[in-house]
Amino acid sequence: MADDWFQVVENRERIKKYLDAVTDVEAIENNPNALSYERSNAWEERKSIEADRKELVKEIDGWSDTLRDALVALATPDQVQAHGPYRPPLNQIEKIDLVTMWGLSAVGLCLMLGLFTPLAALGGAAYLLGFYLSMPPWPGLPESPMAEGHYRYVNKNLIEMLACLALAATPSGLWIGLDALLFGWIGRARRRREQVQAEPPPIERPAPQDRRKFKNR
Predict the structure, then answer these.
(1) How far apart are CA 47 and CA 49, in angstroms?
(2) C-alpha of 111 from chain center
(3) Which terminus of the chain is more exposed, N or C, with fewer CB under 10 A?
(4) C-alpha 91: how far from its chain's center?
(5) Closest CA to 25 of 53, 3, 58
(6) Are 107 and 123 in contact (CB under 8 A)?
(7) Contact by Cβ (8 Å): 115, 177
(8) For each of the chain's 217 residues, which pLDDT tens digit applies?
(9) What's the pTM?
């Protein structure tokens, strides 16, 4: 079936067109002397090429699904009961997406509840730094298709990263939130010690003398 598909003239032409387009785009992206508009056009062309690639592999993915369903059908009821329904293994991109999704959810929840605020702020700053470096708004690089506007060097990810670092550097978690309930006694005890140390020592007044001694003299 696969050999027959690759032998079709139309499919071979579509594959050749796709490979030629990828070669042209990579030549512009790897050219250090390419102009900014050429890189922008190459980025737009790459999105079109990705749509062509998905169209090319759609039929092949259908073969894979058919083969997987046939293999799953070979399992006995006891095997299905022991191991559960078949789940395809996650690839590297899916694993990264899963870690990012759960990590961002944990960081955001901790920041909203005020729990472990410094650690959560540092974790959020690390995520934002990764997002910034994955598609930096630097001259000569293609713009992110998910950007809300046009940036140069500074975008919202960088600003939010600096805000998270500011949260991590201040005791804001001890003012309000779960950190204030769980660990607020630490700050109160420290402030109490500092207040006691800052108070001046009491002035010792001399003991009053008995005036009758002076009258007798």
Answers:
(1) 5
(2) 14
(3) C
(4) 19
(5) 53
(6) yes
(7) yes
(8) 677 777 888 888 888 888 998 898 888 878 878 787 787 788 788 888 888 888 888 888 888 888 888 888 888 888 878 877 778 788 888 899 999 999 999 999 999 998 898 999 999 999 999 999 988 888 777 666 666 777 788 888 999 999 999 999 988 777 778 888 887 666 666 666 666 666 666 666 665 655 555 555 5
(9) 0.60
Grouping H, G, I as helix, E, B as strand and the rest as coil, residue 116 is coil
Residues 6+ apart with CB under 8 A from 140: 36, 39
How far, in Å, are 7, 58, 61, 210 from residue 207 at the CA level? 115, 101, 99, 10
Closest listed residue to residue 118, CA positions, set 179, 70, 55: 179
- Tell me, what amino acid is at 61? D
* Sign (positive or negative) of CA dihedral 98, 101, 105, 111: positive
Q: Which two tokens stand for residue 109?
A: 């929840």
Alpha carbon distance 82, 71 (integer Å): 17
Give me 8's structure tokens.
Answer: 């079709």
Q: Which residues pair with 154 in a beta bridge?
A: 152
What number of residues does the chain have? 217
Both tokens assigned to 82:
């022991």
